[in-house]
Amino acid sequence: MAMKAQRNAPAAMASAGSETAALSPAASLFHSLSDPTRLAILRHLAAGEQRVVDLTTRLGLAQSTVSAHLACLRDCGLVNSRPQGRASLFSLSAGPRLMALLAAAEGLLAETGDIVDLCPTHGAAARAAADTC
């Protein structure tokens, strides 16, 4: 019986590896949403198309910071851009689904009392420590 379990171990490990690989896009999606500035940008874009200058004014951030976050969101397929004169207008690429995902996250945070922000690995203190390095 032990021999059979040993023979099945590689198959189980391969299955776990393929499951992990299958979840990689979901992990990438959540990682793209893991920055508070990117979340704030998405909230503003939910109201409609925005220029970088509009977002910098509303968020009180440098143009380079907003542009870098928009580039990340665009590279992840979450926002679109289109030229308008010398500027670009940014919009959500999957607005209703993305907003539903964020609403579900807010609901989960309401149920858990935002305890995830105390997580020593991913919470506010961990992010602040990572920013100082």
UniProtKB/TrEMBL annotation:
Q: Where is the HTH arsR-type domain?
A: 18-113
**Domain of life of the native organism:** Bacteria
What the entry lists under PROSITE patterns is as follows: HTH_ARSR_2
* Matches recorded under CDD domains: HTH_ARSR (cd00090)
- Tell me what this protein is called: DNA-binding transcriptional ArsR family regulator
The organism is Modestobacter marinus
* UniProt keyword annotations, A-Z: DNA-binding, Transcription, Transcription regulation
Cross-referenced NCBIfam families: HTH_metalloreg (NF033788)
Q: Name one Pfam family in it.
A: HTH_5
**Does the keyword DNA-binding belong to this entry?**
yes
